[in-house]
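Hi R.,

As promised on Friday, here is the backbone we talked about, encoded as structure tokens. Could you run it through your design pipeline when you get a chance and send me back a sequence?
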């Protein structure tokens, strides 16, 4: 008897397994979520949409694209939204990759990259980070072949934290052929304070092959509603829209995103509070002797190597994100839980002198 068989490409893709439930939501420093409640007015505006759930959402995402157009000074056809920027990336890759094509990205970087590549049947080419946890853009440019259709640049890099510098991105874009799409994943851009950091938007202004990915999940605190978007030249944005399932983004998410964009002052305030907590956390951990890479995101990376799983277990009741054999990513949460984590880290070091 034969049974239906999914594509071979799926064999290497892990099934999602939920982690251990956190002690409390505030103790969950494992998913780079925003510890703050939604911005002022967002819950009220979204609540009004709840009563209209018998209706399909606006598939044209009119209000959202208009708000983004106003925000960035680009016509509405420069945007393509989806159920989180990961879904936008999947749509982009579906639209541009065929079996046997190659996609180049740094490693360790965002876990969704190799999965997204595998799903399309493309080959993902992983270029190791440098010792300081930054992208090695020279090696990434050298890894581009005639099969390469897409390069992914994650800045700040999840899970290690550093940004790509503006000059490094400029050199990279000069080196990469114009027909290769360069995706600049800026999921954490709001937390960046380094004046020398690359800007995906500035790169897009000079290069037709750049695609910027943004999300409402992190700084804006809408992770549970699933909404993110790409900014690209219209032909590319349209290709993403075509590859996105219709009605994917709920009106609830669209309205919440628009209301969040209107709450810029409150957003800036809480992002700045998270940045200050990050700076304090990095300083405290370095003081304890940890080798923490520079981070411009809402998380810090501890390069623990083989101790990653042990350390994560020792952090209980704080839940952090271990990468076996590599390190642990810790999201910046509320000041109380950050302090708890910092003392757990100190206790661990006392028991494991370097
Ligand atoms: C969190 C994250 C995203 C965005 O995820 P969505 O919730 O799907 O918008 C994208 N890229 C990176 C690197 C991330 O860490």
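Update: got your reply. Pasting your designed sequence below so it's all in one thread:
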């Amino acid at each position: 008897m034969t049974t239906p068989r999914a594509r071979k490409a799926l064999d290497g893709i892990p099934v999602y397994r939920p982690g251990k439930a956190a002690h409390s939501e505030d103790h969950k420093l494992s998913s780079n979520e925003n510890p703050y409640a939604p911005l002022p007015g967002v819950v009220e505006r979204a609540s009004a949409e709840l009563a209209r759930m018998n209706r399909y959402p606006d598939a044209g995402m009119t209000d959202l694209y208009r708000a983004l157009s106003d925000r960035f000074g680009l016509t509405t056809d420069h945007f393509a939204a989806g159920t989180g920027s990961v879904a936008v990336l999947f749509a982009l890759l579906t639209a541009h990759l065929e079996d046997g094509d190659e996609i180049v990205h740094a490693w360790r970087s965002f876990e969704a990259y190799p999965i997204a590549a595998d799903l399309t049947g493309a080959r993902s080419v992983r270029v190791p980070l440098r010792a300081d946890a930054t992208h090695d853009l020279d090696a990434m440019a050298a890894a581009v072949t005639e099969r390469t259709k897409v390069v992914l640049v994650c800045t700040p890099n999840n899970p290690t934290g550093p940004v790509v510098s503006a000059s490094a991105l400029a050199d990279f874009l000069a080196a990469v052929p114009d027909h290769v799409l360069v995706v600049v994943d800026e999921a954490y851009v709001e937390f960046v304070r380094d004046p020398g950091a690359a800007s995906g938007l500035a790169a897009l202004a000079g290069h037709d092959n750049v695609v910027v990915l943004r999300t409402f999940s992190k700084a804006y605190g809408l992770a549970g509603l699933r909404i993110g978007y790409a900014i690209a030249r219209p032909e590319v944005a349209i290709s993403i829209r075509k590859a996105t399932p219709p009605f994917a983004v709920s009106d609830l998410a669209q309205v919440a995103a628009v209301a969040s964009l209107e709450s810029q002052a409150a957003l800036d305030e809480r992002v700045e509070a998270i940045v200050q907590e990050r700076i304090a956390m990095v300083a405290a951990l370095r003081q304890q002797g940890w080798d923490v890479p520079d981070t411009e995101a809402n998380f810090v990376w501890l390069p623990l190597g083989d101790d990653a799983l042990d350390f994560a277990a020792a952090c209980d009741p704080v839940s952090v994100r271990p990468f076996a054999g590599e390190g642990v990513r810790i999201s910046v949460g509320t000041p109380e839980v950050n302090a708890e984590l910092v003392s757990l880290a100190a206790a661990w070091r006392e028991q494991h002198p370097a």
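One thing I noticed while checking it: The chain has a mean pLDDT of 96.

Thanks again,
M.
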